[in-house]
Every structure is written in structure tokens, then in C-alpha cells.
Amino acid sequence: MSSVPRPAGQATARPKYYDLNLLNLPPPGLVSILHRITGVAMFAFLIPALLMLLQCTLAGEAGFNQWKSYFAMPAVKLIVLGFIWCYMHHLFAGIRYLLLDVQVGIAKEPARASANVVLVAGVVATLLIGVRIW
Fold it and tell me: How many domains does the chain have?
């Protein structure tokens, strides 16, 4: 291979590789991305769905009974569990960020430990609520 001389100061055009696999992130990075995703999911889907549900169930007994029959379906319960996880993860991550804002757990090891706590607490809280729902 022959190399072409470049003018001084010109950088090489090398290909860039971005690893977009979320599993390779450290726990604080994963919590950060999931916090943003759950926030968008709740704003775009959960809040409108809850407002519609509230409107339909308060309109009359027929609407309430219709939605009660929907929530008896296993697929709907799984969707509800997904929204519950979104809420729980967003709640615990938000508490973590509030503590970080007041300089609690800023060092590397406490930040990593609190991120792991957030990831586990969101799943455990969802499972506890899921047992109650099912």
C-alpha cells in the first residue's frame, strides 16, 4: 500500500465505531438512559392513557365495567406491569439524582452502588405490585 502525503495539520479520516449496546454501559450510564426513556414513555403514553381511563370510568358504570373486564386480560396486565416498572424506575432514579444534586454519593463507588440499587429496586417494586395485581 502506498501512503498519500497529507498537508500538515490535516487529521486522518478514520472510521468511527459507536458501541450502542446498552449492556456495555456502567450502571450509572444505564440508569441515566433508562431514566430518560421512562420519562418520555410516561409523558407520551402513560399520562394520556390514565386520563382517558379516568374519563371513561367516571362517565358511568358501563365504562367502569368495560375497563374492569379489560384489566382481567393477561396481556393488559403485562402492559400495566411495564408502565409500573417505568414509573418505579423513574421514581427511584429521580430520588438518586436529587441526592446527587445535594452532593450525596458523588464519588465513583457510591454512585455505582446507588445506580445498582435503583436498577434492583425498580424491578423488586414492580414484582411486588405485580404479585398484588395478578
Answer: 1
Residue 82 lies in a domain: yes
CB count within 10 Å of CB 75 equals: 8
CATH of residue 120: 1.20.1300.10
Whether the Cβ atoms of residue 35 and residue 90 lie closer than 8 Å to each other: yes
pLDDT, mean of each 10-residue run, the chain (134 residues): 61 74 86 97 96 96 95 95 97 98 96 98 98 92
Q: Is the pTM of this model over 0.85?
A: no
Query: Is residue 15 in some structural domain?
Result: no
Output the pLDDT for position 88: 98
Supply the range of the domain harboring residue 128: 26-133
Q: Report how far apart, in Å, the C-alpha atoms of 124 and of each of 6, 21, 104, 129 are.
A: 58, 24, 24, 9
Rg (CA), the chain: 23
Query: Is the residue at 85 inside a domain?
Result: yes
Q: Which of the 8 DSSP states describes residue 44? A: I
Measure the CA–CA gap between 28 and 67, rounded to whole angstroms.
38
